[in-house]
Amino acid sequence: MKNTSSITVSTFMSLLIIVLAGTISTVVAQVGVGTKPEKGAVMYLDGTRKMLDEKWTYWEGPRLAATLPIKWIVVKDPVGKGSAVNSNDPTAAGGKYGSADIVTKKAFRDFRLHVEFLISKPGGNSGVYLQNRYEIQVLDGDSTKHGMGAIINESESPYHAYNGVGKWNAYDIVFRAARFNNGTLTEKAMVTIYFNGKKVHTNHPINQVWGGPNSGIDGGNDGGKGITDTPGGLKLQAEGHDVLYRNIWIKELDLKNADTDF
Q1: Burial call 99-112: b when 16+ CB within 10 Å, e when fewer
Q2: DSSP string spanning 113-165?
């Protein structure tokens, strides 16, 4: 009887380890390069011209110089199958940010985002803007608070998670918009980010819009600190560099608590 009990406990523990391992694998599989849309998510960029024109437009900021149709071009995926979209709009040559950025036609509040990017050449520069306000930096070679994977100017760069030039990278993001009461800001925007499957920012508050009025919504309000309760689209920045994008999808959320953890 004693031996039977011992075998039963041992078997149970083995099964528990297998189950836990399977659970961990499932969680990890939900972030990183190649992650497919979650149930209820909508694809916004699959690398095709059709989807680019259907779901995106130029952001009509104060420095807009580009004209429709969008001049970002569809290219063959340099390392895999399918296609991607190159952010090197000719209007943004020389790093003229805000002149040819693209933004989703749909605006968002809280959401889960997956976006994949590939920097073709050293020094490649772009940016992913949450709500067309808060930039998550895409910049090869920079590991400062203005660098790769940083919540720009507000967090350290998780440069260690970057796959490097010529390789696909992925941001997996849960974002909770700022909260207001009768027009007054009561809670700052919050974000959690996985970079290539590694958690690099957890429940990080975002204080302001950086880069001035040419950067995004509210950038011209009180030095970027005058955040308003206006939803915004996902924006991708054109900086005159060969930075490619693909597999961008968004799942809208309604986060009751100030917790953006996965």
Answers
A1: bbbbbbeeebbbbb
A2: EEEEEEE-STT-EEEEEETTTEEEEEETT--STTSTT-BTTTS---GGG---T
Residues 12 and 46 occupy one common structural domain = no
Question: How many folded domains does the chain comprise?
Answer: 2
Run of H or E residues at 10: helix 2-29
Q: What is the pLDDT of residues 100-134, one digit of tens each?
A: 999 999 999 999 999 999 999 999 999 999 999 99
Is 262 contained in some domain?
A: no
- Residue 208 counted as domain residue: yes
Q: Is the CB of residue 243 less than 8 Å from the CB of residue 125? A: yes
First-last CA distance in the chain? 45
Contact, 261 vs 192, CB < 8 A? yes
- Do 214 and 176 lie in one domain? The reply is yes
158: number of CA atoms within 13 Å, CB side? Answer: 20
Q: Which residue, among 158, 121, 167, 156, has the nearest Cα to 140 in the 3D structure?
A: 121
Instruction: Specify the CATH number for the domain of residue 107.
Output: 2.60.120.560
Pair 96, 210 in one domain: yes
Helix (H) or strand (E) holding 86: strand 83-86
Question: Which domain does 110 fall in, by range?
Answer: 35-253
Taking the C-alpha atoms of residue 157 and residue 195, their distance in angstroms, rounded to an integer, is 11
**pTM of the predicted model over 0.85:** yes
